[in-house]
Design brief:
16% of the residues lie in helices and 29% in strands. The protein contains 2 helices and 4 strands, in the order βαββαβ. The strands form 2 sheets. Strands 1-4 form a two-stranded antiparallel sheet. The protein has a two-stranded antiparallel ribbon with strand order 2-3. Strand 2 (27-30) and strand 3 (33-36) form a beta hairpin. It starts with a strand and ends with a strand. The mean pLDDT is 97. The structure holds iron/sulfur cluster (SF4) (2 copies). One iron/sulfur cluster (SF4) binds next to helix 1. Residues 7, 12-18, 34, 51-52, 54, 56-57 line the site of one iron/sulfur cluster.
């Protein structure tokens, strides 16, 4: 069992909040948008979902 975080780049405004909040550094900024670079480390805490005002982050259970 794991979690799959995703970013909808169409919705992402590049605020970097998800990058800052994730305790295991799942996200990095790429070309002004958040990108999932470390998805296998995701703990499923959903802090990134809560912090994203653009509703661009989703975390699904595998
Ligand atoms: S919190 Fe949302 S809008 Fe901000 S960088 Fe992350 S995905 Fe983009
Ligand atoms: S659910 Fe938690 S651990 Fe997973 S990407 Fe979001 S902030 Fe990081």
């Amino acid at each position: 069992m794991g979690f799959i975080p995703t970013v909808d780049v169409e919705k992402c405004t590049g605020c970097e909040e998800c990058v800052d909040v994730c305790p295991v550094e799942v996200f990095e900024m790429k070309d002004g948008k958040s990108a999932v670079v470390n998805g296998e480390e995701c703990l499923g805490c959903e802090s990134c979902v809560e912090v994203c005002e653009s509703d661009a982050v989703a975390v699904e259970e595998e």
